[in-house]
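not sure who needs this but someone in the group chat was asking about Aspartate ammonia-lyase from Enterobacter cloacae so here u go. i didnt clean anything up, its just raw.
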Amino acid sequence: MNQVCFKVIGNDTTVTMASEAGQLQLNVMEPVIGQAMFESIHILTNACYNLLEKCINGITANKEVCEGYVYNSIGIVTYLNPFIGHHNGDIVGKICAETGKSVREVVLERGLLTEAELDDIFSAQNLMHPAYKAKRYTDESEQ
């Protein structure tokens, strides 16, 4: 795929230079412009089909491993800032880095949030929804 991209970048440079070299409204460089553009379209199309057929089709996610990467990442503490504050988030992140504990473990140990609150905040729907607005879940009536 990289080789195809490099070739297309080269063709783009060819089109740019050929376009600049044309005089007035008659561009004698049109044949090279057309050839470079159509070649780029052709090889990109073939490369995308090959990538789909030989690489993408059949890929499956290991849900447990993916969740482990997310929930064991110190970076997830930034998602808690609206709930625990930036200062507490910094402290939690530092403790996680020093001890190797997960954000969830440290937040629970320090009593910053309950298990139920963390479950709500760290639900897959909340983490992946681009328009999710942080809310503090204090009781059942606010959910």
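also Residues 2-56 form one domain. if thats useful
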